[in-house]
Amino acid sequence: MILLHKMFYFILCICIYYTNAIPPIEQTMEKLIKLISDDQVLKPAEFKFPQWEKKLGLYRSEVRLDFFGEPLQAELRKNKYIYVFDNNMFATGWISSVLLEATMYGRAPKIIDTERLSLAIDAIETFHDHNQNESSVPLMTFWSQIYNQTTNTWQSAPDNLRYLITDFDDSLQLIEDILKLLGIKNIAQLIDKIRTSSAAFKDVFQIPPDFDDTYLNIGLGVQLKLLQDKYPSLYLRWLQTNSNMKKLIDLTLRYAYKPSSQNLDQNTIDPRTYFWIRDFVRDNPQAVLATTWAQNITEVRTIAHRGIRMPFNLNNIDVTVGANVIYGITSAIIYDLVDFKDYFNQDMQTLYLSTASLIAWSIKNSMKNRPDLAQVYYPSHYNFLWYGSRSLFLLELARRQDKSLPDVFNRVYSLLSDVYRSDVVKFFQDHVRSDKSSYDDFLGTNDTNIFGKLEPTGEDRIFSTAQTVNILIASFTYFDINTGRLKWITNEKQLDTIKIMINNSISWLLENAFKYQPFNCFFSGSVKGFNQLPFWYPANIYQFLNGTTFDPDHFDTENQSLMDSIVGVSGYIDETTYERMISQKHFNVSTPTTFNGYNVPGGEFPFWSSQPYTHSVTLLALAQYNNLDD
Ligand SMILES: *[C@@H]1O[C@H](CO)[C@@H](O)[C@H](O)[C@H]1NC(C)=O
Ligand SMILES: *[C@@H]1O[C@H](CO)[C@@H](O)[C@H](O)[C@H]1NC(C)=O
Ligand SMILES: *[C@@H]1O[C@H](CO)[C@@H](O)[C@H](O)[C@H]1NC(C)=O
Ligand SMILES: *[C@@H]1O[C@H](CO)[C@@H](O)[C@H](O)[C@H]1NC(C)=O
Ligand SMILES: *[C@@H]1O[C@H](CO)[C@@H](O)[C@H](O)[C@H]1NC(C)=O
Ligand SMILES: *[C@@H]1O[C@H](CO)[C@@H](O)[C@H](O)[C@H]1NC(C)=O
Ligand SMILES: *[C@@H]1O[C@H](CO)[C@@H](O)[C@H](O)[C@H]1NC(C)=O
Ligand SMILES: *[C@@H]1O[C@H](CO)[C@@H](O)[C@H](O)[C@H]1NC(C)=O
């Protein structure tokens, strides 16, 4: 009798278990966690074409070419085999950060254990700039460096691209053979594009450290500090090599753009930057803006020939880099990272405010219709917006906790809350697809089917839709530390609209999270095509690295190379003069004044995509949605 009773109970339990199936959101999160985990390198591999070099602990990330149009063309972009595995810090840094963020603010099954996270953090450690003389300087590079005995410098080395290009003709033959074997058509066109792209690659090989990887690493350090209980020892290890905040701030300010300075090192910027930023500079002449590269003109003159140089030998401004710098600073101050706040001086406060103002201004002015120049390395608009929204989220949280912060944080809060709670929402409403749920950036949006009819493939749709959810949550909720839930910011009249937008996108993600290619375009070279070369834009500095000036109208292409030139804008040029300069030719080429999108014939540029990054931001969207308090 007792036995029977037990058996009945047992059967009952099974029934309940089956009818009460795991809700779809949990299932989807489990599946995402598994996919992300599968894309971490657990067994390093050496380059032996077609085997790519893969570094232990890094997450998958790959270089592809943005071909588009008819099916045969599009195939070259999305083919399963046509890519180069890339060992960079950026993708792994972001994936780690996103996974930790989902742990902190979301409700999800266990996302990552100490061992796996430790592998990623160890891998990121190898991306420090080794040319620093002081110890523990948290200055980071996109690619790790190798020591060059001839030049006595540490040089950035994108392993697989470098190997491919060093043995270019050998690899090319092999690539051709493999592609033929796979039955891929129009190989000739692909090879052609690789040839042109590889010329551009050579230039980026020698890149100095940058402030986006640098401040991404700062944000990550803060997260490790906050999660010390969950992941013991990782923060302490991070501190060992990253504690020199004084030097970090010195460097951030040394390489900042100060248009009103009298010093060429500080007041000179890429002519492509100046083209879109000039009204901002006119209205904010005392601005101090975070730049991309940790190098100045004085330095590039002497060290370029030793294999460390900014592309085109000059610094630029990218709003995405700016958004990451702002986040790094915001989190370091709010959560008191080492002694960062002791060095947060007046100049650094100005840099913080100026850079945040530029971000708000760029969004309000739709990047002056030149996203190709404003997001010069990071074309994904949804990704940029998300990076910016993360600072707003932290600032809102700090206000709710009555943290006392310098006044500049209130000003940045006003700027960001205004733009994110109005302009950005409007942007989503204007760009949502006809299903009112999902969003496309540009990968595959110009593809056509065999009948020549437009048939977008939605390759960045999952990414863009997930980031939209993450942005809306970052803009309209705060994390309540007492309940551990995300709470709506109540005094917002548009909240109903926002909730519906989020609900729609979450439903779409649950349905489609595995139905499209999980691509994104998280990074690219600054040149997308002929129109993005800096030389065609108005400039007032034309020099060789040795300081000799030259006349762009009489450039001796036979004996001189632009490779060693510095073409830039120093100081402010008044608008009347500038307009006249726009109407003139530079190096005999008219100024490219319009941008026709990232999919234009002839402009098939290399881009960086990471599937596990898409899966992690999707996980973050679901985990946060799952933790919303209604
Ligand atoms: C580091 O020190 C060496 C020798 O003193 C010097 O040549 C080099 O320029 C310094 N590097 C930096 C980045 O300061
Ligand atoms: C540019 O870098 C050089 C070498 O590090 C440094 O001496 C100089 O002060 C820098 N320029 C400015 C304006 O900071
Ligand atoms: C060392 O640097 C020089 C100058 O950039 C370069 O020409 C050379 O190929 C480098 N050597 C190695 C082994 O990478
Ligand atoms: C969003 O979805 C949740 C869960 O399905 C539901 O409770 C809520 O009412 C929805 N909100 C809106 C505004 O549709
Ligand atoms: C400076 O470099 C340019 C281009 O390499 C060269 O033509 C010129 O002669 C150099 N000037 C001096 C003074 O060395
Ligand atoms: C390039 O240099 C050579 C030798 O100095 C000279 O003969 C030739 O005219 C130069 N080319 C141009 C286009 O000036
Ligand atoms: C400038 O371009 C025009 C065509 O656009 C060409 O005819 C002319 O020869 C070029 N001049 C120089 C100096 O290259
Ligand atoms: C790509 O598609 C967009 C949106 O449909 C369109 O505005 C643009 O003109 C297209 N570009 C090309 C080169 O076909």
From TrEMBL:
Alphabetical UniProt keywords: Signal
Organism expressing this protein natively: Rotaria sordida
Signal peptide (from-to): 1-21
Record-given protein name: Uncharacterized protein
Keyword Signal: yes
Keyword Signal in annotation: yes
